[in-house]
Amino acid sequence: MSIVVDRHTRIEPNILYFGTPVVLISSTNEDGTPNLAPMSSAFWLGWRAMLGLGARAKTAHNLVRTRECVLNLPSDALASAVDRLALTTGSDPVPERKWERGYRHVADKFERAGLTAVASETVAPPRVAECPVNMEAVVEAVHPVGDDGGVLAFEVRVQRVWVHEEIRMAGTDDRVDPDAWRPLIMSFQKLYGLGPQVHPSTLARIPERMYRPDEDLERARALQ
To answer: φ, ψ for residue 109 (rounded to 5)?
Structure first.
């Protein structure tokens, strides 16, 4: 019997952000102005997404109140624009915990980031023109995370998906070209790009259409 040496070391990381796409969430403030906030605690299932946000964050307050948002996915080329939003908040006054971490209030996040707001079709918050992917979404459920209520998990349902032409797979209206799409990735508070494919995927043999969420797509198509 062969003996395998375990190369692992037990540690207690302060955070477990091993690498997820950056999302710029646009939402609507009480006065009707847009808020724009970067986050990376997100994953997708069909045409739904789960978003993890601090309960005291301005974006969380807006989502609870209005039940809608836009999920804008920046490419790695937009890293500097995303970074200009770091340590900013739409909350005024700045929550104490954020103040302690160096955050400051910024009313116009689009101007701060140097990004352009464009009108959405099914929700009030604007889309980000420079982001290659925009997803208009509505909140379906809000789930408290943990015992202290400091984090909320938002289940959102996507109603429209918009992409830049250069990342759409040629000749299709239902596929993104993964070789052309270069998402911005957050890993342990640092920004990275996505490298080229490293190995063929057996899962890629399954046609993407077999994963289509028919019920949510029909609801999205019914919106005018």
So the answer is: -70, -35
Structure tokens belonging to residue 29 = 């403030």
pLDDT tens readout for residues 16-55: 999 999 999 999 999 999 999 999 999 999 999 999 999 9
Rounded Cα gap, residues 31 and 179, in angstroms: 41
Q: How far is CA 158 from the centre of its chain?
A: 12
Using the Cα atoms of residue 46, residue 47, residue 53 and residue 56 in order, give the sign of their dihedral. negative
Q: Which residues pair with 190 in a beta bridge?
A: 187
Per-residue tokens: 25: 């969430």
CA of residue 117 relative to chain centroid, distance: 16
pTM of the model: 0.94
Q: What CA–CA distance (Å, rounded) separates 185 from 20?
A: 5
Nearest to 41 by CA among 30, 54, 31: 54
Q: Residue 39's closest CA among 19, 27, 14, 21?
A: 21
Q: Is 143 within 8 Å of 202 (Cβ atoms)?
A: no
Domains and CATH numbers, the chain: 20-221 (2.30.110.10)
> From CA 127, how far away is CA 120, in angstroms rounded?
6
Residues 6+ apart with CB under 8 A from 32: none
